[in-house]
Structure formats: C-alpha cells, structure tokens
Write a structure and sequence with these properties.
A hairpin with a 3-residue loop joins strand 1 and strand 2. It is elongated, with a radius of gyration of 32 Å. The N terminus is likely disordered. It is mainly α and 336 residues long. It has twelve helices and two strands. It has one domain. Helices cover 68% and strands 1% of the residues.
Length: 336
C-alpha cells in the first residue's frame, strides 16, 4: 500500500505546531489574519470566507458619497461641459432621491469590491499542495493524519478557507473514525453549506439593487406631483402672463425631477447588477473548482488501509464446512 513519501512527510511535519493547531509563522503559505483584505484595514472584523463586513462597506460608502458630491459641487458645476451632469444630482428637487441612491450605490459597490478581493484571496488556496499530488498517493485513516498536519502548516487555520475547511473536516473524520464512505458525504454537505453561505452574502446587495430604482420612482412621483401642483396654480392665474411664465418654470422643474431621478436610479441599479452577476459567476466557478479539487485529490485517493483489508478478508473468507452456529459456541458437525 502506497503511503505519503518521505518528502511529503517532511513537508507536513517539518515545523512544530504552535498553540495546538497553529503552525509556526515561518512555514505558513497563506495567513488569513494578516493577508485577508478586511484584516489588512484592521478596523472592522473580517467577514467569513467571501462575505464582506457590512459596517466597513457602510463607512466606505459614507466617505465615497461625500467625496462624490464634493466633486460635483465644486468641480463639475464649475466646468461648462460637466454642468448638465452635475445639475442632475444637485437640483434641489432631486437631492432627496439622488443623495440616498448615490449612497446605496457606493455601499453596494464597496461590498462587491471587498467580496472580489476576498474571493481572490480564497482562490489562492487552490494553488497550495494541501494534498500530495502524485498519482501513487492514497488516502486512508493512516495517511490522513499526515495530510492534516500538512494542511495546518500551510495556513494559519483551515477554517478560514472554503477549500481547506472542507478537506480538514473530511480528513478529521477519516482519521478519527476511519469511515471511507462518510468522507464523500461530509464533503457534499460542506459544499452545500458553502453555497448557502455565499448566497446569503448577496442578500443586502440584492436588496439595495431593488431599493435604488424604488428611490428613483419615488423621485418621479414627487416630481410629477410638484409639476401638477404648479400647473394648477398656472391655470388659476391665467390672466397674468408673467405669473403663467413663472409657474411654467415650476412645471418644467418638476418634470425634470421626475425623469432625472428615475434615470439616475436605473443607471446605478443597472451598473450594480452587471457587477453583481459577474462576481456571482466567479464565485460559482470557484465553488466548482473546489468540488473538482475534492473529487480529484481526496475522494479518488481513498483506499482501505492494509489492516482494514486484512480484517475484511478474514471476515469474509471462512473455511469450507465450518459453518458456525448462531450462538457462536461450536461449529456444526459434518454430516457422516
């Protein structure tokens, strides 16, 4: 029976494990504590796997929204060819809609950018040789221990990584219980949990994609209401030409609010939806790669250990004519 070669054994046990399960820093190939994008900022607690911290996204959105409106007011408004763009956001009737819509846009964008960075960090686990790659290697309850030690020397802890967490849970069960059939079941169940975890991380972003157009429609209703009210006053003062002209300006201003807020909201929602769909596809592809990795390097490598094979062979091979009674006390006598 093939086992882990000496080179792989040395790679798995070269450095002592620190604090029980954590390896010494000089042998860690990926360190979630220091390399995760959110942990690098160091202000907010990092979300699990590819889930971004919502408070961090909120803080980034506040900063970006303030910077954007500062740019619009002091730069775009002073630039002739950018004034039509600026007035859409800072028109008095539009601010009640464009302000919240812009904030939700930057909040959802910040969350998606953080998710993308965290996804790239998780993908790096696929490049680690967590399980020996050579063809003659097999996995059993004996070799599982060495592989587990190998995994713990590659990262600060497997639970921070989607792929390595699956391998760690499956091989821990194999090492402790020795059930080969349970490994595939554990991997499948963990894959479903990971899919649910990633799907739930899009809940808030999807809600904002839905909420931004709603804000645009609210601006539409508000603008039309203003236009109709102004037009009513225009009809009431039909005898005064100057009053009619002044009121018509209010009508056109209300119509501008109605259409501009809807346009801004729909464009923002469309951009976020495109970005969201692209990121969802990347995460789906990553989960598929994790499934393929587990099938190729874990499930397909499972074999019974020599000791188990001997026990199975001894239990199934009985001498001819030596049938044992149900109570197991004595064999049945041979017929004369």
């Amino acid at each position: 029976m093939a086992n882990i070669p000496d080179s792989d054994q040395k790679a798995a046990t070269a450095a002592p494990l620190a604090n029980g399960n954590r390896p010494a820093p000089d042998v860690v190939s990926l360190n979630w504590t220091t390399e995760d994008p959110e942990n690098r900022i160091g202000v907010f607690q990092s979300g699990r796997y590819t889930s971004p911290n919502k408070l961090l996204g909120f803080a980034l959105a506040v900063v970006l929204t303030a910077a954007f409106f500062t740019l619009v007011v002091y730069v775009f408004s002073a630039t002739p060819y950018l004034q039509p763009f600026a007035i859409v956001f800072i028109r008095p009737g539009n601010l009640w809609t464009t302000g919240p819509a812009t904030f939700l846009f930057f909040w959802s964008t910040s969350l998606l950018v953080l998710k993308g960075r965290k996804l790239k960090f998780q993908q790096r686990a696929l490049d680690l040789a967590s399980v020996p790659q050579h063809a003659e290697f097999v996995l059993n309850e004996t070799s599982a221990r060495a592989v587990l030690e190998r995994v713990h020397t590659l990262v600060d802890h497997p639970r921070y990584f989607i792929l390595l967490n699956r391998i760690d849970r499956a091989l821990s069960n194999l090492h402790n219980i020795g059930g080969l059939s349970d490994v595939a079941t554990i991997l499948k169940g963990q894959a479903e949990n990971d899919e649910n975890q990633i799907a739930s991380s899009y809940t808030l972003i999807s809600a904002m994609v839905w909420g931004i157009p709603v804000l645009g429609f609210i601006g539409t209703v508000q603008g039309l209401s203003q236009a109709i009210g102004t037009f009513t006053r225009t009809l009431a003062s039909s005898a005064d030409l100057n009053a009619i002209k002044a009121n018509l300006q209010g009508v056109t201003g209300g119509l501008a609010t109605a259409f501009e807020t809807t346009l801004v909201a729909l464009v923002m929602a469309l951009l976020i939806q495109f970005y969201l769909n692209a990121l969802q596809k990347q995460e789906t592809d990553f989960l598929d790669e994790c499934n393929d990795y587990c099938h190729l390097h874990v499930i397909s490598k499972l074999r019974l250990a020599d000791r188990n094979r001997s026990e199975v062979r001894a239990a199934t091979e009985k001498p001819a004519g030596a049938s044992v009674q149900a109570d197991g006390l004595s064999p049945m006598p041979k017929p004369q």
